[in-house]
Specification:
The structure holds two protein chains of two kinds. Chain A is mostly helical. In chain A, about 60% of the residues lie in helices and about 0% in strands. Chain A is globular and about 65 Å long. The mean pLDDT of chain A is about 95. In chain B, strand 5 and strand 6 form a beta hairpin. The chains are: A mainly alpha, B alpha/beta. The complex binds iron/sulfur cluster and copper (II) ion (CU).
Chain lengths: ~475, ~160
C-alpha cells in the first residue's frame, strides 16, 4: 500500500483549489481511524445524546421556539452547519453520525461495534419492494414535511414529533427490511443530502476498479468475518457517485486489499456521471430549488401574508389576513405546485427552447433530465444564501439555550441573558450574493459539460446550452432579488 | 490574465458595489414620514422605500404585543408595546436593502418577523441593480470562458 505523506499545504491546496485529488487513507491517522471498528459508534453516541435532549426539549420545553433547544439546535445550528459546511465540503458526512438509524443498525447487527463469530442478521432481512425502489417516496415524504416548515421551525413540539417519528420509523423499518432501507428510500433528510452530495468535495471510490471486478468475495458489500459490508445497499467497488454513500466506512474496513479511497476531489464531479440519471433524482433538484425560493420568501421576506399562510394555527385579528386553514391551503398549494409543477415546468420550457435551437435527435426527456443536474450548484448556493442569516442573526439564541435548553429559567453557563444582537448583519447580503455568483459559475461550467454529453457536436452543444444558461441566470437574479431586491 | 484570475476578479465585484455606492453619493434630503404597524409577525407596510440622505420618520404602533424595530446598518433600535406609539427618526445614510427586524421575542414566528427598508439612490435600488449586473456578467463571462475551451471529461 502506498503510504505517502502529505504536507498540510498540499492538503489545503487539494481541498480548496483542487489541484489534484487526494486520498485521505494515505494518511496513517485517517486510515486507522476509518478502519477502527468503534469509529462510527464513537461519533454516533454523543450525537445520539444531543438528539435525546433535542426530542426531550421538543416535548417538555417551552413552546417558544427561539428559547427551546429543539428548535434552536435543529433549525439554526444543524441546518446551518449542514447546508453551508457539511454537505458542500463533506458530502453525506452527516449520515455517518446520524442518530436516526442508529438503533436499527445496532439491532440488525445484534451489537454496537463488533461482528460476532457465527453472525446472523437480526430481522427478516427482506429487500425493499421494487415498485418503490426509487426516490419518489422520499420526494413526497419530504414535500409533505416541507409543507409544515413554518410550524416545524417555530413550534418545538412539532420538531420533537417529527424527529421521534423518524427515529421510530428508522428503527422499525430495520426489522423487516435489509440494512438501511430507511435511509435510502424513506428518510427526507437523506433525499436532499444525496442530491447535493453530488457537488461535495469528498468521495469514497475504489482505487482500482478492475481489481474489484475480479475479486469474487467482495467483502465491501458482503461483509467479512469482522465487518458487515455496505449498509447502504450499494456496491462500493462500483461506486460512481456520492448520492447513496453515507460515508460509514464499513467498506473501507471490509476490503482486504485496501482498495477503497476516501478522496478529496473537485466540486461537482458527480454531476457528469451518466449512470443512474433519472427523473426521480432530478425532481429532487427541482423540489429543492423551488423550496429554496419559497422559504427565503416566507422566512426572510417582507410579506407578512405569506408567513400567515404557512402558520396554520394563526388566528388573525386583522381583516386583511385569511383564517388559519384557508391560508394554509394556499400555502400548501404554493409549496406543492411550486415544487412539482411550476419549477420543473418552467425549466421544461427552457429545455424545449434548447432542443428547438439544434437539430439533434436527443429526446426532450433526456435533455430535461440531464440538464437538470446543472441546477444542483445554483440550488445549493440558494440554500447557502438562505442559511447564512440564520446563524449571523440568531446566534445569540444558540448560546441562550445552551444555558437553558428547556426554557425553564436555568442559567447553566451564564449565557442565558446574552442579548440578541446580530453579528455583521451588513455583510450578510454580500455573502449571499457571493454564494449565488459561485453557484452560477459552477452551474454554467457543469451545464456546458452536460450539454457536450447530450449533443455530440461542439457548436450544437454550446448553442443548446444558451437557453439553459439564461434560466440559470434568471434563477440567480431571483435569488438576488429575494436577498437585496 | 488567466481564467482563475478573471473569475476571482468577478467574484470580488460584489464587494466593490457598496464601496462605490458609499462614496459616490451627494444626497439632497427630503423628510419622509411613514406609519408602520408592527404585528405578529410582520410590519405593515412590509417595505419602506426612501432615497439616500432622506430623513425618515416612522410612527410605529403595535397591533398586538411588544415588538422591536431594529435596523442594524443604520443603528435604529426601538421597541413598541400595544397601545403605545413611538416616533423614530433617522437618516438614511447608506444605500442598500436593509432588513427591519423584530428584536423582542414576540411569539412563535418572531425570528421570521422581517420588514425591509430600501434606500435607493435617485430612485434606483443600486445594490440590486449592481448585483444583477454582476450576476449577468459572471454568467456571460463564465459561459464564454468555459465554452471556449473543450475540456476533457474526466470520469
Ligand atoms: S439518510 Fe437520513 S436517517 Fe439515514 S443517516 Fe442520513 S440523515 Fe440519517
Ligand atoms: Cu415581533
Amino acid at each position: 500500500m502506498s503510504s505517502r505523506s502529505w504536507s498540510v499545504k498540499e492538503l489545503l491546496s487539494s481541498f480548496l483549489l483542487h489541484r489534484k485529488e487526494f486520498d485521505l487513507t494515505d494518511i496513517g491517522f485517517f486510515r486507522r481511524l476509518f478502519k477502527h471498528r468503534a469509529f462510527q459508534w464513537a461519533v454516533i453516541t454523543p450525537n445520539l445524546l444531543v438528539f435525546v435532549i433535542v426530542v426531550w426539549a421538543g416535548f417538555v420545553g417551552t413552546p417558544v421556539g427561539n428559547m427551546n433547544f429543539a428548535v434552536v439546535f435543529v433549525w439554526i445550528v444543524w441546518w446551518f452547519a449542514l447546508m453551508t459546511v457539511l454537505v458542500p465540503l463533506f458530502s453525506r458526512l452527516w449520515c455517518l453520525i446520524c442518530p436516526l438509524p442508529a438503533f436499527g443498525d445496532w439491532l440488525q447487527r445484534r451489537g454496537f461495534i463488533r461482528r460476532a463469530a457465527n453472525f446472523k442478521w437480526f430481522g427478516w432481512n427482506k429487500p425493499w419492494p421494487s415498485p418503490i425502489k426509487n426516490l419518489w417516496p422520499v420526494n413526497f415524504i419530504f414535500l409533505f414535511i416541507a409543507t409544515f416548515i413554518v410550524l416545524l421551525t417555530t413550534r418545538p413540539v412539532v420538531t420533537g414529533i417529527l424527529l421521534l417519528s423518524l427515529f421510530v420509523l428508522g428503527t422499525l423499518l430495520a426489522l423487516p427490511f435489509a440494512k438501511r432501507a430507511f435511509c435510502r428510500y424513506v428518510c427526507p433528510v437523506g433525499g436532499f443530502l444525496g442530491l447535493y452530495s453530488m457537488f461535495a468535495a469528498i468521495e469514497i471510490r475504489p482505487k482500482d476498479r478492475t481489481l474489484c471486478e475480479h475479486h469474487v468475495a467482495k467483502e465491501c458489500v458482503r461483509g467479512s468475518d469482522t465487518s458487515f459490508g455496505c449498509p447502504w445497499l450499494i456496491y462500493p467497488g462500483g461506486l460512481e457517485k456520492n448520492n447513496y454513500c453515507g460515508l460509514c466506512m464499513e467498506c473501507v474496513k471490509a476490503c482486504p486489499y485496501d482498495n477503497l479511497a476516501v478522496r478529496i476531489r473537485r466540486f461537482g464531479k458527480d454531476l457528469l456521471v451518466k449512470s443512474g440519471r433519472a427523473l426521480d433524482e432530478v425532481y429532487k433538484a427541482h423540489i429543492m430549488l423551488a423550496l429554496a425560493v419559497i422559504y427565503i420568501a416566507i422566512t426572510q421576506g417582507p410579506w407578512g401574508w405569506l408567513r400567515d399562510w404557512g402558520n396554520v394555527f394563526y388566528k388573525p385579528t386583522y381583516d386583511f389576513a385569511l383564517s388559519g386553514l384557508q391560508g394554509f391551503a394556499l400555502h400548501a398549494t404554493l409549496v406543492w405546485s411550486g415544487a412539482l409543477i411550476i419549477a420543473p415546468g418552467i425549466f421544461y420550457l427552457f429545455c424545449s427552447a434548447s432542443r428547438a435551437l439544434v437539430k439533434s435527435a436527443a429526446s426532450i426527456k433526456k435533455i430535461f433530465i440531464d440538464f437538470s443536474y446543472s441546477l444542483i450548484p445554483i440550488g445549493l448556493a440558494g440554500w447557502v444564501g438562505f442559511s447564512t442569516p440564520i446563524i449571523f442573526i440568531n446566534w445569540s439564541y444558540v448560546v441562550n439555550v445552551l444555558s437553558d435548553p428547556f426554557g425553564w429559567g436555568w442559567d447553566l453557563l451564564g449565557t442565558k441573558y446574552i442579548p440578541w444582537k446580530p453579528i455583521f448583519p451588513e455583510i450578510v447580503p454580500y455573502i449571499q450574493i457571493l454564494a449565488v455568483a459561485i453557484g452560477l459559475i459552477y452551474s454554467i461550467k457543469y451545464g456546458i459539460e452536460l450539454s457536450r454529453q447530450i449533443f455530440e457536436d461542439e457548436g450544437e452543444a454550446l448553442k443548446a446550452f444558451i437557453p439553459i444558461a439564461i434560466f440559470l441566470m434568471l434563477v440567480s437574479i431571483l435569488f438576488i432579488w429575494l436577498f437585496v431586491g | 490574465m488567466n481564467k482563475r484570475h478573471l473569475i476571482l476578479l468577478l467574484l470580488s465585484l460584489p464587494i466593490a458595489v457598496p464601496l462605490f455606492t458609499s462614496i459616490s453619493a451627494q444626497p439632497q434630503s427630503t423628510h419622509r414620514y411613514f406609519n408602520v404597524t408592527a404585528r405578529q409577525f410582520a410590519y405593515e407596510p412590509g417595505t419602506i422605500v426612501v432615497n439616500q440622505g432622506d430623513i425618515v420618520t416612522v410612527r410605529l404602533r403595535s397591533a398586538d404585543v411588544t415588538h422591536g424595530f431594529y435596523i442594524a446598518e443604520l443603528g435604529v433600535n426601538e421597541t413598541v408595546s400595544f397601545g403605545e406609539e413611538k416616533i423614530i427618526t433617522f437618516v438614511a445614510e447608506k444605500v442598500g436593502a436593509f432588513k427591519i427586524r423584530c428584536s423582542v421575542t414576540c411569539g412563535p414566528l418572531h425570528p421570521f418577523m422581517v420588514g425591509e427598508l430600501i434606500v435607493e439612490q435617485k430612485g434606483l435600488n443600486v445594490v440590486f441593480i449592481g448585483s444583477t449586473a454582476i450576476i449577468i456578467l459572471v454568467g456571460v463571462v463564465s459561459f464564454a470562458l468555459i465554452g471556449k475551451k473543450r475540456v476533457k471529461v474526466e470520469q
